[in-house]
Amino acid sequence: MNNRELIDLLNREHQLDAAQWTQLFATYTEEDLEYAMALARGITVQRFGRKIYFRGIVEFSNICKNDCYYCGIRCSNRKVSRYRLTEEDILKCCAEGYENGFRTFVLQGGEDGWFTDERMCSIIRVIKARYPDCAVTLSLGERSRASYQAMYDAGADRYLLRHETADAEHYAKLHPAVQTLESRMQCLNDLKEIGYQTGCGIMVGSPGQTPETLAKDMVFMQAFKPHMVGIGPFLPHQDTPFKDESAGSVQTTLFALALCRIMLPQVLLPSTTALGTAEDSGRKAGVLAGCNVIMPNLSPMEVREKYMLYDNKAGTNISAAQGIAILRRQMEEIGYEVVVGRGDFGKENRK
Ligand code: SAH
């Protein structure tokens, strides 16, 4: 089957086998990319309209016990000045987000032991009490099932934990031996079983990635059926072991996003900051490839340059309000509208 036939097959059956996925990633052309993007965009518009959900990210701690080789805030990076936001700081970010129409707050941070279940649950409860019409999304890495359960019971709605790669050998090239794919997958299964709207995802072009490992990612995702998928290009950070590696391809990122939309028509798919960093128009291109979520940064100006996962991260030198205005305008430029609403999986999708 040629690539176009494979994309049509995916559109009918919502799954392919590993060999078919490998073929797509290994041999896709510019025309195949355009075909997949147009199809994905049509599916998105039909389901969601030309509507984009904004989720505000609050990067509440850059302290991390992990040492992921790709990440700028890994524990071995002694050049980072470390910070933790207080509950009050976090609430201020939420207030600014709420005024701007955000109805989802994403609390993202390193794996920082200071944020015990008790502390996290308290923050979640305060946010949910103050903003009962808002969703709280967590993105704070691997924790025990009991911890995930406690935070869910405190009111958290969603959890983002990228699997990074579904290939164990590749996973081992990206992380020290104490971090395993098995443990990551256990976390993802726990999150979904507990009832979180759960997000997984990958970096495109991470060192060691091949069409075969990408195929494994797609095969994993078509079985796992995540509610959200985060996909951005890998971008090197100067103070990591991967500083000399090349950045992931924007084209392949767009192709992976489009295929994800075709595979999982209902999925909530952010056009990521990494994509916007790789190219000025990256986030617009992501929407044109089937994305329907943008996650503007709500973190206080003072901490932004300390939360550098990769070099030159977009939006670091501008305020939350400026960042929001730019993203809003970018969406308008391509005929999309930012909407106010939680944007839950499977709920508000259909005009
Ligand atoms: N500590 C949390 C959240 C922070 S990292 C966690 O581990 O889930 C969020 C995501 O940023 C990671 O999952 C990774 O896929 C992405 N990321 C980290 N470093 C990156 C880099 N150098 N280039 C592109 N994406 C990166």
Structural account:
There is one protein chain. The chain is α/β, with parallel strands linked by helices and 351 residues long. It has one domain: Alpha-Beta Barrel (TIM Barrel). The chain has 14 helices and nine strands. Helix 2 packs across helix 9 (211-224), helix 5 runs parallel beside helix 6 and helix 6 runs parallel beside helix 8. It starts with a helix and ends in a 12-residue tail after the last strand. The model has no long low-confidence stretch (mean pLDDT 97). It binds S-adenosyl-L-homocysteine. S-adenosyl-L-homocysteine (SAH) binds at residues 70-71, 108, 110-111, 139-141, 161-162, 164, 203, 232, 234-235, 237, 274, 309-310.
Which helices and strands, and how do they pair?
Layout: H1 3-13, H2 18-27, H3 30-48, E1 51-54, E2 56-61, H4 87-99, E3 104-109, H5 117-130, E4 135-139, H6 145-153, E5 158-160, H7 168-174, H8 181-194, E6 197-204, H9 211-224, E7 228-233, H10 250-263, H11 273-278, H12 282-288, E8 293-294, H13 301-304, H14 320-333, E9 337-339
Parallel strand pairs: 1-8, 1-9, 2-3, 3-4, 4-5, 5-6, 6-7
Helix pairs in contact: 2-9, 3-10, 5-6, 6-8
Residues 70-71, 108, 110-111, 139-141, 161-162, 164, 203, 232, 234-235, 237, 274, 309-310 line the site of S-adenosyl-L-homocysteine.
